[in-house]
Amino acid sequence: MTSALWKSSVLLTLLALALVSCKTKSYTQVEYMPDMYRQPSVKAQELDPNAPNGVGMRQPVKGTVPRDFEPYRFGFADSLEAKKLRNPLTPTKDVLAAGKKYYETYCIVCHGAKGDGYGYIVPKFTMPPSLYSEKLRGWTDGLIYHTISIGQGLMPSYATQIQPEQRWVVVHYVRALQRAAYPTPEDLQAMKGSAIGFDTDLPDTGKVQIWPKK
Ligand code: HEC
Question: Which homologous superfamily does the CATH classification assign to the domain defined by 76-183?
């Protein structure tokens, strides 16, 4: 082989390598187990030509419920019935601690730590009404449960994220927030000298907004 031929073949090889390495890195170049990588199964978000609407993710068959799932039987028009639902749980320390956990996972972002409506996403998102307004303090546990279960206005339903028992736990925590905003004289007495200062940690009830101005 002449040296010119040598040079050009080396150059060609380098060029080929350069082109190969230019490929996008978003997928594996070498497939060690192509059988595992290329499965006939349809993955979430993928299109499925066999599905009626071409979408890979299917809706459950109408009228079926997942195993162990307890569907909520009331709709928007049934608030009078839902109002009568009783909270099956006692607000023990554990229940309230769990309520705080769920509230701070699902509700705090909009309703704020104290339930005043100053959540992290406000004012980018419409400010929700206070959870310790006179109106809400007059609501039954069932009605609060109903709101968490089916949503209200801009607030979506939390039925798929929060199981029925956990929703009752959250209702107790909402009650605790209301009581923290309007402590009884006994509460104030009991808190004297404790680390939690009702005088400093109390939400500002003077600014309660039933429905914030737009
Ligand atoms: C995405 C923001 C958002 C989240 C998260 C959210 N809410 Fe709401 N919530 C709202 C808004 C907005 C309203 C007012 C809806 C309306 O009436 O149009 C509302 C209304 C309510 C009401 C009725 C208040 C009234 O005066 O009518 C209750 C009770 C309530 N939410 C409880 C909760 C609880 C408990 C959680 C957590 C499980 C929660 N919300 C999570 C935004 C949210």
Answer: Cytochrome c-like domain (1.10.760.10)
